[in-house]
Amino acid sequence: xxxxxxxxxxxxxxxxxxxxxxxxxxxxxxxxxxxxxxxxxxxxxxxxxxxxxxxxxxxxxxxxxxxxxxxxxxxxxxxxxxxxxxxxxxxxxxxxxxxxxxxxxxxxxxxxxxxxxxxxxxxxxxxxxxxxxxxxxxxxxxxxxxxxxxxxxxxxxxxxxxxxxxxxxxxxxxxxxxxxxxxxxxxxxxxxxxxxxxxxxxxxxxxxxxxxxxxxxxxxxxxxxxxxxxxxxxxxxxxxxxxxxxxxxxxxxxxxxxxxxxxxxxxxxxxxxxxxxxxxxxxxxxxxxxxxxxxxxxxxxxxxxxxxxxxxxxxxxxxxxxxxxxxxxxxxxxxxxxxxxxxxxxxxxxxxxxxxxxxxxxxxxxxxxxxxxxxxxxxxxxxxxxxxxxxxxxxxxxxxxxxxxxxxxxxxxxxxxxxxxxxxxxxxxxxxxxxxxxxxxxxxxxxxxxxxxxxxxxxxxxxxxxxxxxxxxxxxxxxxxxxxxxxxxxxxxxxxxxxxxxxxxxxxxxxxxxxxxxxxxxxxxxxxxxxxxxxxxxxxxxxxxxxxxxxxxxxxxxxxxxxxxxxxxxxxxxxxxxxxxxxxxxxxxxxxxxxxxxxxxxxxxxxxxxxxxxxxxxxx
Length: 620
Hints:
Blueprint: H1 3-37, H2 43-52, E1 55-57, E2 64-65, E3 71-83, H3 86-90, H4 92-106, H5 110-118, E4 125-132, H6 133-142, E5 147-156, H7 164-167, E6 169-170, E7 176-177, H8 179-183, H9 185-189, E8 193-195, E9 198-199, E10 205-206, E11 214-215, E12 222-225, H10 229-240, E13 284-291, E14 297-303, H11 322-325, H12 335-344, E15 353-356, E16 359-362, E17 365-368, E18 378-381, H13 382-387, H14 391-412, E19 430-431, H15 441-448, E20 453-454, H16 457-468, E21 472-474, E22 479-483, H17 491-500, E23 507-510, H18 514-531, E24 541-550, E25 562-572, E26 577-584, H19 592-610
Parallel strand pairs: 2-12
Antiparallel strand pairs: 1-8, 2-3, 3-4, 3-5, 6-7, 8-11, 9-10, 12-22, 13-14, 13-26, 15-18, 16-17, 19-20, 21-23, 24-25, 25-26
Helix pairs in contact: 4-5, 10-19, 12-14, 12-18, 14-15
């Protein structure tokens, strides 16, 4: 080979090598550029991030109002808004149109907005991070792909502690706890929106290019309750005057948040209120008012209570709505149900009598009247049985009924099962029946006068409501209306959500015929006038029954620990309201007719005056 040929061959190989290295270099450069622009991600991963990892835009939680529209819980709302500028920097027509639209909403000169949009920056313009919610709504309705609006809110309580355990609260992690807040959380919470885009080095979303990258959310429903704030406040005031001993719990029960994170030690309970003259003195209690015809709860007071704005400063147990979550032995208030069962089964008539000998034996146990008169009272009428709360007579009726009819009727009144009230954490209570390992024949006797059976206050209210309502048991409820959010695009979803709600009055079952309910009511009214005069309201006829029961423990019934109560309804012959007053660990007196009945009378008097119910009889 000649020298010239060798040179040409070397140059050819050199050119091929240079070309090869150039190709390799180009590949590396492209890879480096791609890696710089899209760190830790290729094009496919970037696309996936845009479409699969949105930022949630929180909705505004709904408000809660009383039956007259007074706000009990509201959301303090603010809005944060960003607008992405690149499109406005190059297209003057769009910049001018956007400026003209935003100026009246933001109350800002159009020229200022235009200059801001023209600024060369890839960062979005923060229009404001504490805008009024109304401004946020107006911006959100523009539905621009370049405009992102996010709302944030916290709960406000214009009425302070009013109905705290019924309403519930939302903790710092946006978790609903107890009451209406928890039960209706899915409706109050709303549905979050979504913001899509590529994250930059500061983890902020970038590269929004159109409305397909922004999904607006749906704010929560507003709820209208059956509660009347004026009646609720009166009930709470009345009950508070009877509560004088603060409740304490072990230190482990203290908390800073509903998630159970511990905090420094704080005193529990609430300071003793000023006690009215002659008031009972109890550790805790309940006062519930229900509309007879519908089952709507007008007031539900629990004491002690808490401030929902400072829920972390009290023990867990103070959060509970004890009217629906705590059980107790109700005592003689159940004698009215025993009488209704006996009349319905026709084992006695209103004019029937029995021989009261002071004691009665059944199921291997002996039972006495609570008055301690060993000799008994001789011939006793059914109304006297109720008026003077004779245990012997109640056991006599239960034995005549027998196990099957007795327990079937108590179950029909709703005992041993939840009422279905629309509040979180309702307890079902416990009614031992034949076949249960813990049941004995003596349980039939004790259950007839309200011992050896656990109920909730709301169960007693509902059962008495059935007697007041022509024998028809209604489901108690606290929410009467759900108001859909404004500016909602998904009308179909709203229709489905509203259809799923079952608000308003709902019949459960006919417990006894109307004529039986009327007969029992008249007997109970006669009994009030005969032996429970403290529950009377001048000018009105009231049906009701007092109750006293011990507090069971593993060691039995400690002396002195009693729960007193009075349940009733009126005015007859067309009852409007059912009221239960329950006082726990009463220390001023030992009988419901002494302690709870006077409070019941005051509550009923207020209801008649407040709602303008005219007297049925002349007031002397």
